[in-house]
Design goal:
The protein has 20 helices and 13 strands. By secondary structure, it is α/β, with parallel strands linked by helices. The chain has a domain of 314 residues: TIM Barrel (Alpha-Beta Barrel). Strands 1-5-8-9-10-11-12-13 form an eight-stranded parallel beta sheet. A three-stranded antiparallel beta sheet has the order 3-2-4. The longest helix has 24 residues. 40% of the residues are buried. Bound molecules: 2-acetamido-2-deoxy-beta-D-glucopyranose (7 copies) and zinc ion.
Amino acid sequence: MLTLAYTTLALLVTITARTIPDNYNQERRALLAEETLTSVGGKQKLNDEETRANEILMKLKTNELNASYFNPQHFNFSKHYFSYKKDIEKSRVYQIIRSMPKGAVLHVHSSLMLHPDILVKLTYEEYLYACYTHDSIKLQFSKATPARPCANKWALVSELRNNSSDPNAFDAHLRDYFTLYRENEDYDYVDINTVWKRFNKVYYAIKSLITYRPVREKYWYETLKQFYNDNVMYIEVRSGLPDLYELDGTKHGKRYLVELYKNGTDKFIEEHPDFIGIKLILTRDRAQSINHVLEAINVTRQLKAEMPDLIAGFDLVGQEDLGRPLSDFIPILSEAKEEINLYLHAGETAWLGTSTDENLVDAILLGSKRIGHGYALTKHPSLMSALIKKDIALEVNVISNVVLSLVHDVRNHPLATYLALGLPVVLSSDDPGAWSAEPLSHDFFVAFMGVASKRADLRMLKQLAINSIVYSALEEDRKSRLFAVFYDRWDRFIKDVISNESYRDLEVS
Ligand SMILES: *[C@@H]1O[C@H](CO)[C@@H](O)[C@H](O)[C@H]1NC(C)=O
Ligand SMILES: *[C@@H]1O[C@H](CO)[C@@H](O)[C@H](O)[C@H]1NC(C)=O
Ligand SMILES: *[C@@H]1O[C@H](CO)[C@@H](O)[C@H](O)[C@H]1NC(C)=O
Ligand SMILES: *[C@@H]1O[C@H](CO)[C@@H](O)[C@H](O)[C@H]1NC(C)=O
Ligand SMILES: *[C@@H]1O[C@H](CO)[C@@H](O)[C@H](O)[C@H]1NC(C)=O
Ligand SMILES: *[C@@H]1O[C@H](CO)[C@@H](O)[C@H](O)[C@H]1NC(C)=O
Ligand SMILES: *[C@@H]1O[C@H](CO)[C@@H](O)[C@H](O)[C@H]1NC(C)=O
Ligand SMILES: [Zn+2]
C-alpha cells in the first residue's frame, strides 16, 4: 500500500515538474557561456565580416560532424590518420582551413618537414648510390662506388631506375622508405616502440639523402616553399646540425649548416617578402651521454653568441620513454638556462607516474619557455597551475601523437581539455614529412574537427594562430611585422570566404 502511494506520488511529481524551474535555463546558459569564455578564443570578438565567414564555416562543420554523430561508424577521427588522409582534401571545412593564415610553426624537426614526393625528386640528382636491405635504405652521393660497407651492394639510383621495368613503381617503392604512410593498409594497433623503430628508419633514410650539401640546399628551399604555401609565415626549427659533405668527401661542421639555413632562408625571403624567417632550436638525442649533451650545449652557446637572431635555444629529442629523463641533466641544464632558452620536449607519454611523465616537473622547474607535447599534463593539476602561472605554452602535435601511438581516437586527446581550459596552446606538426601530411593544415583540421568542441569556431582558430606568434621566440620588432603580415592575410582570407561562390548554397545571412 505504502509503495503504491509513493509510486503515485512520484508520478504526480513527475507530471507537475514538466515546467522548467525558474531561472534554470538562465543558469544553464550562464554556465555554458562561462565555459565558452574560458576556452581558447572565447574572448575573441568577431567583426561583421568575420561573423559571416564564421557562419559559413560553422554550417560546414556542423554538416560534416552531424553526419558522423548519427553514423559513428563513419567518423574518421576515431580511426587512424592514414585511413582518411587521402579524403581530407574533399572536406569543405578543410578547404577553408587550408587557405587560412596560420601564423607560425613552433615545433618541427628539420629533417622531417618535407613531403616524400619531393624527396623522391631529389633522388634524381646525379651520383646518388643506394644500398638496399629488405626494410631499409642507405643513400650516398659519390663519384665512385662508396667505400662504406653495405649489407647488399651499392648501386647507382639512376641505373636502378633506368633498369627497372616501371620507373613510376620504382619511385613509389623508393618513397616508402621516406614515409610511414601507407595508403592501402589496415591500421592495426602498433605499440609505441615498434612504431618508433619504423620512424627512426625513415629518419635515417632521409638523413642519408639530405646530408649532401647541394641536396640540403634544395631540400631547404622546397621545405620553406611548402610551409609558405600552407600559409605559415615563420618557423622555429629543431635541428641537431649534422655534418654535411661534398662529392669530393669534404665535410662541413655545424656552423656551416646554420649558415646554409640562413642563406637559403634569406634567398627565400627576397622572393617572398612577407615570409618573416626562421629560428633554430639546437638539439641532441636524449639517449646520449651527459658529456655529449654538454658538448651540444657548448656549441649552442657559441653559435648563439655569433648569430643571436638565428639561434632560439636548446632541446633534447628522441623517444622520451627510452632516453634519459631530464633529471639526469639537471646540473648542466640549470647552468645552461642562464644563457640559453630551453624549449624542452616533456611528457610525450601515456604512462602516468613514470620518469617520462615526471619530465614535466623538470621542464617547468628548468624554466622551459615552451613545452614540446606535454601530452601527460592533464593528469597533473599542480603542474597545470604552474604552467598557467608561468605562461608556458604547450606545443601540441595531434597527428604525431596518433601516428606515434599515444592516442587512437582523437576525441580523447588531452588537447580538448587544454582548449576548454584556455591554456596557452600552439598547434604544430612535429614531423609532417614523415607521415606525408601537409605542413600544418592537416593538424589544424584534425584538431578543429576531431578534438575541439563541436561549438569551437573561427575564434578558436584565430586565437591558435595568434598564440603561435605570441609564444614565438621572435624579437619584438619582427613579432610586430609577423602580426602585421598575419592580420593583412587574415582580412583577405575573410573576404575570400564570404565572397566565395562555392558557399552560395549555404544560404547564410
Ligand atoms: C545538426 O544536428 C543538430 C542536432 O540534431 C541539429 O539541431 C542541427 O540542425 C543539425 N545541423 C545541420 C547543419 O545539419
Ligand atoms: C571520411 O572518410 C570517408 C571514407 O571512409 C570519406 O568518404 C570522407 O570524405 C571522409 N571525410 C573527411 C572529412 O575526411
Ligand atoms: C573557395 O572555393 C574554392 C572551391 O571550392 C576552394 O578551392 C577555395 O579554397 C575557397 N576559398 C576559401 C578562402 O575558402
Ligand atoms: C642495369 O642493366 C645493365 C644491363 O642489363 C646491367 O649491366 C647493370 O648491371 C644494371 N645495373 C644495375 C644497377 O642493376
Ligand atoms: C638505360 O637502360 C637501357 C636499356 O636497358 C640502356 O640501353 C641504357 O644504356 C641505359 N641508360 C643509362 C643511362 O643507364
Ligand atoms: C652564405 O652566404 C655568405 C655570404 O654570401 C657566404 O660567404 C657563405 O659562404 C654562405 N655560406 C653557405 C653555407 O652557403
Ligand atoms: C663545455 O664548455 C665548458 C666551458 O667552456 C668546458 O669547461 C667544457 O669542457 C666543455 N665541455 C665539452 C664536453 O665540450
Ligand atoms: Zn618533437
